[in-house]
Amino acid sequence: MTGASSGIGLAIADMLGQEGYALTVAARRPDKLEAAADGLRAKGYTVEHVAGNLGDEDVINGVVAAHEATYGRLDVLVNNAGIGMGEPVDALTTKKVDIQLNTNLRAIFLFYRAAMPMLRAAGAEHKNALVVNTSSISGIRGEAWLGVYSATKHGVVGYTQAMNKELATAGIKSTALCPGFVDTPMTDFVKEHVPAETMITPTDIAEGVRFLLRTSTGCVVPEIRFEQPAGGLEALPG
């Protein structure tokens, strides 16, 4: 799984470890990822970790190859790595546009492609292989100042829907996670407007994924929305 060094990704990795899955975790920063992997191992989980820029095709292929070399099979793929960079449309920075497109969207396409042989094998075996793609509530409704981020997260939802149609007969199911503000370092920029204690927790998201692990072969969940009782993205600075 990607983006696993903190926040939502680490919470999902912890939950998968609890459920008995051996893990390959990936993230950009080696020191932070190694600390997270060591913490997971300390809980008794089997963990491989691979650091690198998850917007890079060679890194993506390397993560999947490392997982296959270590475990030989893949039942659950979690595409969680993502980045949000807010800018008004008048002042979009091309580099920031490209980083968000590569990390939030293009990487998901490439992870599917690289992992497809193992996912197809799992689907053929038990008809319940699972891919989880982290989108956002802004992938459901676009937000001012987060236009590029919103567009990439809309793309995640659309690609998830397309994969469910394309892979339905292969026993591979896909779900897009669409949370509002989650209390992670990624939302520190807005916590003066949206208090952390009012936010969704990473554990909430992980428990949603635990539910997906328990669904029958006849049940596909295209997306899960996690919303706060009130407020939310409308509280962003305009």
UniProtKB/TrEMBL annotation:
UniProt cross-references to CDD domains, sorted A to Z = SDR_c
Coiled-coil positions are none
Cross-referenced Gene3D superfamilies, in alphabetical order? NAD(P)-binding Rossmann-like Domain
Taxonomically, the superkingdom here is Bacteria
- Fetch the PANTHER family from UniProt: 3-OXOACYL-(ACYL-CARRIER-PROTEIN) REDUCTASE, 3-OXOACYL-[ACYL-CARRIER-PROTEIN] REDUCTASE FABG
Record family assignment: Belongs to the short-chain dehydrogenases/reductases (SDR) family.
Name by which UniProt lists this protein: SDR family oxidoreductase
User: Source species, please?
Assistant: Paraconexibacter antarcticus
